[in-house]
Fold this protein.
Amino acid sequence: MNNEITMPLLTIDRHRLMTDGTGVTTLVASYGCPLSCKYCLNPYTWAPEVAIKSKKVTPKELYEKVKIDNLYFMATNGGVTFGGGESLLHADFIREFRNICGDDWNITVETSLNVPLKNLETVIGAVTDYIVDIKDMNPEIYKAYTGIENDRVIKNLSVLAEHVGKEHVVIRIPFIPEYNSKEDVEKSVALIQKMGFTNLDVFHYVIRESKYRNEKG
């Protein structure tokens, strides 16, 4: 029986500069997400039928694909960013990838943090930087937009605050048309700052229609 860890690979996007972490990065996106955000840019990552057909890679196979940019990573303090979908659904994969690539590269995760606590605990120590999209701290707004509760998000934020240096965490707080207001965003900012986070990215979400979403209704 083969118990080797794999990840359903969506795409590998090389030579990204200062958009997904420090320095030159390679974005590795995977399938799978617990949320159903109304304006999601990648709703096809939700689809089980697509994920089943996707190419699955092992941590070693991924390393072989991305190591070509080692010189860029080393020269710019860059590395690999895991996105999605939800990157932390593949926490064991990320941990094993760190074991293979060693300590020289930065590993960044883009995450909603709406995952079991054990997933976050698995990557602490393996991940360098966290980019967290919290949507909105108000539970009612969060559920209306994503379809699920944000209890896990709040718990996992408290764990990050306790175990990871604040300089290694960016919190994204969007103004989402039709779902929250300027006042709601300000309340979210205040709550995040109360937890000790200072690196906040407050922005206006731009709605883009998805062909996949339109097809799925």
